[in-house]
Amino acid sequence: MKKLFAIAAIVVATMPAAAQETYENAKIAQEDLNGTARYVGMGGAMEALGADISTISTNPAGIGLFRHSNVSLSLGLVSQGGAQNAVGGSTTNASFDQLGFVYSYRTGRTSYLNVALNYHKSRNFDMILSAANQLGNASLNKLTWAKGNAGYVFEAKEEVQPDKTVIDVPDFNAPYITCSQLDDLFGYYVNWDDAAKSWDYINADNFRFDRAHEGYIGEYDFNVSGNINNRIYLGLTVGIHDVHYKHYSEYVEQMPTFDCTVADRREITGTGVDVKAGVILRPVEESPFRIGLSIASPTFYELKTANYTYISDGKYRYDTGKINDARDRTNYKFRLYTPWKFGVSLGHTIGSQLALGASYEYADYGSMDSRYITGEYYDDYSDSYHSNSESDRIMNDHTAKTLKGVHTLKLGAEFKPVKNLALRLGYNYVSPMYQKEGFKDGTLNSDGSYVSSATDYTNWEGTNRFTCGFGYTFDKFNASLAYQYSCTKGTFSPFMSYYDSDYAAYDCVAPQVAVENKRHQVLFTLGYTF
Prior knowledge:
It is a single chain. This protein is mostly beta strands. The chain has helices at residues 2-14, 22-29, 37-41, 140-148, 181-186, 393-402, 447-450, and strands at 70-81, 92-106, 112-124, 127-134, 191-193, 198-200, 206-228, 232-254, 259-281, 290-296, 300-312, 317-319, 330-337, 341-350, 354-364, 369-379, 384-391, 405-418, 421-430, 457-474, 477-493, 513-529. The protein has a 14-stranded antiparallel β-barrel with strand order 1-2-3-7-8-9-10-14-15-18-19-20-21-22. It has a two-stranded antiparallel ribbon with strand order 5-6. Strand 5 and strand 6 (198-200) form a beta hairpin. The longest helix has 13 residues, at 2-14. It is elongated.
């Protein structure tokens, strides 16, 4: 254990150059279905239909179908079904979701040049996650003990579970195992046995976990688009992403004589930039049928994260800063480059009564690039600070094994029974981002592991979204209302597992708990066309 604390001291000295961990990065990289009520009501399947400002961030060519200038504002409520408010946060929150403007200028008899500005909330982090289970012969402090004894006791092996494939487990036979700041705090629960002249651990009976996520990513898009003779529509969007994320969690292990609590408060802030391009083609002049193609660059994030973490048994408390001083946190900067995204879409209208849309998108999240900040410098010419970075290859290899390509299918329809009234339906399926055998590996020789202050992880499955809505037009105004229900199931683990090939009693197999995130959204949009 003395070696464990020595490693921790080195970690603190090198934290400013840190990168981030795979599961934390995945939270930032994901996107919600959000925008105008019309866009959401049709399941977002408007990339080829266009003429809605929300396509500015999915297929920029959709802005090229506007024939009049337009301004729109969207507000809503988001509620999480079945959640319990255990550690703060709220199950229902008001949300400012979208504000945008399109200026349309005719350049020819059938050609237009359009310019658009739009804000929308691309990610709403508000969510409460809770899990509880018996621990058996496992505990977080036992894991810490194992890491402190790595190279002396443990060997890696593969564990085969009934009806499951072989699972790769960490190599605890390394010369030493990376220590995180949480291991440093947890170390004092690993006791020195004077008789045996060795460190030992305390078994726990069960655990309880609660976390409240809060915050959002706001996306500001600037677009230039247009069309050529109503046959070819082109668009280009530059986006700026503004990240505001925080969580507070409590992990409690019930020991035979006391409860051990690990409390963690983390914030992530920063900005990112990306570029999106799109084209919509009408292959047959006499037909309204359209085909859309789009591509989005990675979002190049520069982020800063801070955490305040403590561990307590009700009598004594150890933390990452001064006791009870939440202002003293562990701070560091890092960069994150999300994957490229590709899309293809179809759109068709039948008269002025029916519009049908279908979209498909693909992004390989296993290719995300977590990067160290290697240096910062001041640029006299621009009067600003800049930084250099390099890839965290160890963490990126872990990401490639843990995350995978995600397929998104969007389907939507709009029907107008009368001229001024529109009825809408939509459906989304987003395939799983996480490999079933993925886990948060706290043994990686990466700064992303060094600075980790939480050991839990959830392998979320696919997401199903069902949407509906209606819109009404009066004079130059239009009002729309949409409802979205989304459901994602997952498997929660409080910490990684390890297995000992010689002494089964030393196995520390973390229990898994089924969790889910059910979300309801009501969205209202008011627009004006001129």
